[in-house]
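From the pipeline queue, job 12 of 40. The input is one protein chain; the requested action is below.

Action: predict structure.
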Amino acid sequence: MLISAVILAKNEEKNISQAIKSLDFVDEILVGDDNSNDKTEEIAKKNGAKVIKLELILDFSAKRNQLIKNAKGDWLLFIDADEEISKELKTEIISLLKQPKYAAYYLKRRDFFWGREMKYGEIKKVRKQGIIRLLKKNSGHWQGKVHEVFLTNLPVGKLNFSINHYPHPTITAFLKKINYYSTLRAQELADKGIKTNILEIIFFPFGKFILNYFFYLGFLDGPAGFVYAFMMSFHSFLVRGKLSEIYSGRYVN
């Protein structure tokens, strides 16, 4: 039974090597290069991955589905370039796939920010419930241009151990990423005919901060928890501000 690991990457020269090295138990590693202008492709190839150039479209599900067509494995393992498979999860996957019970599996994710493991707030759900990242080929498809999810009509299992995630090493990197993704999300909402208003622009980000920082106990993660909750609320503000720009005919970037 072959396992293909799939990584989407754009300008990830600082992270891609660590991600690939954590996948030493799979039969094939595909790196979907999303038009990088750094050394991502060079480093990926040096570490034994096969690099596939992706189409220049703002649709992450389409990119993932494109990579599935290029994969040789019976099973597919998706990770991001700033993630790695923990040793415990590696052992669990190897054992599981000897006699799998389901066609897809939720993998939990542990997020590390500012040198500490985050346990509350924005990441609380994915830490406990996980996201579908391990799946049998042809068991479903990815959907959603930006915050893409894997959809299947088949029963889904859940693994015990986690992917390790190392996002946003600096405030500058965090701001750059939320600026990029908020533009994509605003355009996705506009394409669906969804509009916003001044009350939503003001109060939705504020409500999201209250939810993540207080109700989801983000304050227990210390200063890092406050920064994370604030930045994700700012992301929500940018999405709605840019959505308003789109409908007013202004340039969005």
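Job complete. Residues 171-248 form one domain.
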